[in-house]
Predict the structure.
Amino acid sequence: MQVILILGSNSGDKRQLITEAIRRLAVTGQEVMASSFYETAPWGFESQENFLNRVVVFETRLSPEDFLHHCLDIEKQLGRIRHPEGPRYSSRPIDIDMLFYGSLILDTPVLTLPHPRIQERNFVLVPLAEILPDWMHPIYHKTVSELLACCPDKQSVKRL
């Protein structure tokens, strides 16, 4: 199954952290394609440091939940600390979000697929449109390009 992820970092050696996370994700499946790196302003909070983001597609045999657990383990290994009582959005060395798992629609206490805020975020849609402009969102029935064209987020997303 194809799993589409976005990786982001806004602290430490951002490019190296994202590259290392992708390398570690290779045990979950085969990398199929990846976007360019993009520099973006923080979304949902204030920070002096911009984010570096990249969308990556893997082919995997893991279940969505098992793939998620690998992502969370890699985040922890690379220094991400999640504070259950802390703010929802904050600076972090690595963030790995599952955007799609094929065209699966899933809503559990642990995982929601597709990611529920894809259509609100330029920093997701721009790199996603670079590699999968015709990918169809299984809930909105619009392509990534169509979602990007009507995205309310106007923050700058700079291709590096």
